[in-house]
Design a protein that fits this description.
Layout lengths: L3 E3 L3 H11 L5 H19 L5 E8 L2 E8 L3 E7 L3 H10 L4 E2 L2 E5 L6 E6 L9 E5 L2 E2 L3 H13 L4 E8 L1 H10 L5 E6 L2 E2 L5 E2 L5 H6 L2
Parallel strand pairs: 1-11, 4-5, 4-6, 4-8, 8-10, 9-10, 10-11
Antiparallel strand pairs: 2-3, 6-7, 12-13
Helix pairs in contact: 1-2, 2-3
């Protein structure tokens, strides 16, 4: 799929393996999620448009560049919150908007319970953040909301995806690039990614 980008960075592969480990505790898990978010955001923003800029250095004038787009982070509550801190280290001036979606355990469909978007778009690029792209339902629902809001440029950043979720998201939103740390085998009978890493929110927040 042309819109699917799987990181090949050695640090992503190393940290993701440690993240999966059942013996990785909550504190280490959160730190690894933060570091992986930073690395994946670095890769996802390689096409940011630039404008030329001149600055003064101690030795004279330097011709450089400035990123043009205002970026908004849209973490899908609750697990998406774990990705925010790492990205904000790389992009400290981003705006952060929150969408609350949970997956109904019986239907596996997303249910929206919180939406803190402003009345009109205030950013040029939205990064939808959710660690696990399982069925794709929550990501599709979040992007539906953003497009109805008026967002024109959207990307998805996650740690691990299942082929079913990637296919579903690509089918509904073929214009949205998907950036993942790894693509796993598939889903089990209750919609969890295999081998995955378990419930990202529970492992992140110790619940």
């Amino acid at each position: 799929m042309a819109n699917l980008h799987i990181s090949q960075h050695p640090l992503v592969k190393h940290k993701l393996t440690t993240l999966r480990d059942i013996d990785t505790d909550h504190r280490a898990f959160r730190e690894l999620v933060r570091e992986l978010a930073l690395l994946l955001c670095y890769e996802a923003t390689q096409d940011l448009p630039l404008s030329e800029r001149v600055v003064n250095t101690p030795m004279g004038e330097a011709h450089g560049y400035k990123a043009q787009e205002t970026i908004g982070l849209v973490p899908i509550l609750r697990a998406g919150l774990g990705l925010v801190e790492g990205i904000m280290e790389l992009l400290p001036h981003v705006q952060v908007w929150h969408l609350g979606l949970y997956r109904d355990e019986h239907t596996l469909r997303p249910v929206e319970y919180y939406n803190k978007l402003p009345a009109e778009p205030t950013v040029q690029l939205c990064l939808v953040l959710d660690p696990m792209l399982a069925t794709g339902g929550s990501a599709i629902a979040a992007i539906d909301v953003l497009k109805q809001w008026g967002a024109k440029r959207i990307k998805y950043i996650g740690l691990i995806g299942a082929p079913e979720g990637v296919e579903n998201l690509s089918k509904h939103h073929p214009d949205v690039p998907i950036h993942l740390g790894e693509l796993d085998e598939g889903l089990n009978d209750v919609g969890f990614i295999i081998p995955g890493l378990g419930d990202a929110g529970d492992r992140m927040f110790g619940t």
